[in-house]
UniProtKB/TrEMBL annotation:
Name of the protein this chain belongs to: 7-dehydrocholesterol reductase
Role: Catalyzes the last step of the cholesterol synthesis pathway, which transforms cholesta-5,7-dien-3beta-ol (7-dehydrocholesterol,7-DHC) into cholesterol by reducing the C7-C8 double bond of its sterol core. Can also metabolize cholesta-5,7,24-trien-3beta-ol (7-dehydrodemosterol, 7-DHD) to desmosterol, which is then metabolized by the Delta(24)-sterol reductase (DHCR24) to cholesterol.
Gene3D superfamilies membership: 1.20.120.1630
Keyword Transmembrane helix part of the UniProt annotation: yes
Family that this chain belongs to: Belongs to the ERG4/ERG24 family.
Transmembrane segments: 47-68, 102-123, 186-206, 311-329, 341-360, 424-450
Known EC number: 1.3.1.21
Family annotation (PROSITE patterns): STEROL_REDUCT_1, STEROL_REDUCT_2
Pathway(s) the chain acts in: Steroid biosynthesis; cholesterol biosynthesis
Amino acid sequence: MFVVFCLQVPMAAHKEIQFSETGRSKSVMNGTGNSQGQWGRAWKVDWFSLASVIFLLLFAPFIVYYFIMACDQYSCSLTQPAIDLFTGKARLLDIWNKTPQLTWKAATLYTAWVIFQVVLFMLPDFCHKFLPFYRGGVQEGAVTPAGIVLKYEINGLQAWLITHALWFANAYHFHWFSPTIIFDNWIPLLWCANILGYVVSVFVMIKAYYFPSNSKDCKFTGNFFYDFMMGIEFNPRIGEWFDFKLFFNGRPGIVAWTLINLSYAAKQQELYGQVTNSMILVNVLQAVYVLDFFWNEAWYLKTIDICHDHFGWYLGWGDCVWLPYLYTLQGLYLVYYPVQLATGSAIGILLLGLVGYYIFRMTNHQKDLFRRTDGNCKIWGKKPQYIECSYMSADGSKHYSKLLTSGFWGVARHFNYTGDLMGSLAYCLCCGLEHILPYFYIIYMTILLVHRCIRDEHRCSSKYGKDWKRYIDAVPYRLFPGLF
C-alpha cells in the first residue's frame, strides 16, 4: 500500500539493509521457470495507491515551493501565507510575482554541477587503495527479482572529498565565486532541480518501453501515473556503469547537502558577522550522516532503494528536489533566525545527535557483519541468533537467507530507524522553539519511517511467507520496545 507521505529519498540515515538477511544465500533451480519474483513494487494498483500517487504528483512540488517561499517572503512562517491567501490580503499571483525566476546564471551553475558529478561518478575509485576498512571500487549488488547481480563502481566518498576540497580551496585561496553562491541563487536553482527531476523521470519511463537495461526486471501496471511515479525499470543504466538509481540516490543531492549547509553558514557570517553554535551543530551533525553514507556506500547496495524500489519520479525528482530543499531547512531557517544556544543546550543536542548516530550505525554494522560472515561472528559478545528462511526470484531460483534476531535487531525490527529519529530531532532542536518550520523534518521523518516499517514488512511477508511470521514472533516490536 502506497500512502501519501511515503515520498522518501535516499540517505544513509534513512535506509535499511534488505530485511536483515545475510546476503550469502545460495540458490537452486526449482523448475518453476519465469515465475514472478516475490518482491519489488506492486504489479497491480488499488484505488488508494493511485489516489496517493496523483496527490503527490500534484502537491509534492507545491509543498517544496511553499516552504521555500515562506522563508523568502514570510520570515519562515508556515501559517501566514495561508492566512493572507484565505483573508484576501494576498493573491497567489502576488506571491508568484515576488518569487525569483529562473536565471541563466543559475542554469549554468546547475548544469556545471551535474556534469561535474557525472564525471566524478564515472571515475574509478582510488580511496579504497589507501583508506583502511573502506570498501570502494567495484562491488556487487544484491540479487534482483529476475535473479541478476549487477556490479557497481563505488566512489562516492572520493567524489565527496574532491568536491569539498575544491570548495574550500575556492573559499580560502582562489575566490572564483562567493561561498554564499548557493544561498544567493537558492530559488532559481530550485527551478533547475525541478527541470532535471522531471526530464530524468520522463526519460527513464520512455527507456523502459523502448530500450530497457533488463526487460525481466521491468514492471508495467498499465496505469500511467503509477508507472511514472514508482518507476518501471528496476535498474536503468546507460552503458555498463552509469546506473541511474545509484547516481541520483547518491549524487548530486547528497554531495550537495553539506555544501548547501556550508553556504548557509557563509551567509550567516556575511549578514551577522558570526556563525552561531546552532549553525555549527547543524553542519556537524548532518555532515556526520552524509559522510557515513559515503563511507558505507557499498553497504547501501543492500538497502531497500537498490534492492526493491524501481526508478521513477519517486526517486528521480525526489533526489533532485525533495532532498536538497527540505532536508536542509534547519540551516536555511538559521540564516533568517540565527540562534545562539546556551552551552548546556548545545551539549545536550550534540549528545542526542551522536547517540542517535551511534545506535543507527551500530545497528546497521551488526547486520552487515552478520551478512558478510554468514552468521559466523559475535554480536554483543555472543554467537548471533537468527531464523532460517527462503524466498523465490523470478528466474525460478530458490534462495536461502537468515534473519538476524540478536543485538539491536533483537530489541526492535527497525531499531536503526529509532536512532535515525533521534538524530532528526537533534537537527530540529538546534533551531529553538520559535517556529514550526524547522520541525517539519522530524514530523516528516516520523511519518515516513513508520510507514516504511509497515511497507517494508508487507514486502517481507510476501517475500518470506511463514518464515516472516516466525521472525515477528521472535522480535515483536518495530521501533520502540514496549510501545510500537
